[in-house]
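Bit of a strange request maybe. I'm writing a small parser for structure token strings and I need a real example to test against, not something I typed by hand. Could someone generate the tokens for this chain?
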Amino acid sequence: MLSRIASILLIVILALSYKAIKPPAPRTCGSPGGPPITATRIKLRDGRYLAYKEYGVPKQSASKKIVFIHGFGSCRHDTVIATNLPSGLLEELGAYIVSFDRPGYGESDADPKRSPKSLALDVEELADNLELGPKFYVMGFSMGGQAVWGCLKFIPHRLAGASLLTPVINYWWHGFPYNMSVKAYYEQLPRDQWALRVAHYVPWLTYWWFTQNWFPTSSVVQANPAVLSPQDLSVVSNFVKKEHPSQVKQQGEHESICRDTMVGFGAWDFDPLDLDNPFPDNTTQVHLWQGTDDRLVDVTLQRYIVKKLPWIQYHELAGAGHLFPYIEEVSAAIIKTQLPSAKRNKEIKLR
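Reply from user aminoacidic:
Good idea to test on real output. This should exercise your parser:
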């Protein structure tokens, strides 16, 4: 009798545990009970839909066309290089920008098979659907900056140029010296070490870890100000309230922020530090921007990357944190530096 009761209790515990760690299915936009479709979208070859938003001059008259890749916990509306520029600059440069919801965010369908390669191919297919021409620029911020590595690896022949804005670093890229990546990893808050450890080693537990209340979870997920620099805090205090905050995770956390973390800090099928120069004729420029006081992305690791990849033009911003693209003059310098008709800013110092 006791053994039967124990067996039943074990089954109940296992069932409850499974329910807790099993993420719910995404609430696909336009499906019964799902969020409404409000964005302009394209249908990809595999049947998924990708939502996008356009900025700047009409693409038919644009001389420069840019695909922007948003960061963690953001969507197509959070296009820092378009929304934080001096008035009229995009028109002056003849620039068109398209930003899209990465899979699982906003109104883009989830992609359970998402990888650095699949996202690069999504970028290429979006550009082809919108008829951006044989070559276009890519710019990515934070986790979106990390995604630009996939574009450099898998679609370099389509790129007119690329900018990585404080791209997130995967501590498990094998090209880093072991002691350097370990030191940077342990400089994070313990809660963030655990969040990334779970995402890398037991990714099937990521949803549970991000949504449970027993242990401290990711500082970024919980908007913990401890990971922001003084400059970041100043920038945040000046933020205009987001127009569409509810859209970011409206399809569910698992296929947005959880999938982002699992892909970004998971096992990659290539290492950016091993990339050969995809533009040996030097007609295409790649820029990487990094702040010295970034509490989320380690500047020491970023310096090592550009030392290994000397074909990347490195711009280190003194005193800048992680959110420097939200500063108007910096955002303007980034886009002017990338686009060939603009005067190049060799050095920017921030107070």
